[in-house]
Amino acid sequence: MSANECEGKPQVISSDLRDLGDIHDLNNFQCLLYDGLYLPMAPPKRLEGRSQLENYKSIKDAQLNRDDVILCAYLKCGNHWLFEVLGMLTTGSLLYRKSLPRSQMIDFIYKDGIESLPPPRLLVTHLPLRMLPTQVVEKKLKCIQIRRNPKDVCVSMYNNFRNLAVPKSFEGNFAEFTEAFLSGEM
């Protein structure tokens, strides 16, 4: 991809590179193109000496237990809301957490983080089935998939990204955001 082609778009790094480096676009957005999806890059301090690609690939090899439950959904579809409900049901506690604990999000903790959690585990992901641990299918784990009207998802994402701190915030109008959402560039 030439520099002109990248202008105004997320910088995408090919998944065949070993060292992903520190790549930014105009909005400080970092991503990795892996298995046909744009995935966020972790800050270098969270990579623990491995490349981002190695971390994402490691997820497939994670060891799971039969009592693990995985909550799966696209961004802004209600992961946090349902995570809270399931957490309250499984623990018997009415404790509400204002933010989804990244310590239980497969997309951020990778293989090592998954395996270090004590059972029973309630895991959350935005990844598709093909990128989840192979044991999800082998052990026939419980997966809960959340679906939401795409129009509602688009509006929710727009409002969320518009309210992020600069430079990560979306500064365009709703029509521009909707065009990007529908094009598959999100």
* Strand fraction: 5-15%
Helicity level, as a percent range? 25-40%
Count of separate DSSP helical elements: 7
Overall spatial form: globular
Instruction: List how many beta strands DSSP finds.
Output: 6
The unreliable regions are 1-28
How would you describe this protein?
It is built from 7 helices and 6 strands, in the order αβββαβααβαβαα. By secondary structure, it is of the alpha/beta class. Among the domains are: 57-145, no CATH class; 149-186, no CATH class. The chain has a 3-stranded mixed sheet, with helices on one face. It has a 3-stranded parallel sheet with strand order 5-4-6. β2 (30-34) and β3 form a beta hairpin. α2 (52-58) packs across α4. Residues 1-28 have low confidence and may be disordered.
Task: Show the helix and strand layout.
Elements: H1 3-6, E1 11-14, E2 30-34, E3 37-40, H2 52-58, E4 69-72, H3 79-91, H4 106-116, E5 122-125, H5 135-138, E6 142-145, H6 150-162, H7 174-183
Parallel strand pairs: 1-2, 4-5, 4-6
Antiparallel strand pairs: 2-3
Compact overview of the structure:
This protein is of the alpha/beta class.
Q: Which terms would index this structure?
A:
single chain, 186 residues, 3-stranded parallel beta sheet, 33% helix, globular, disordered N terminus
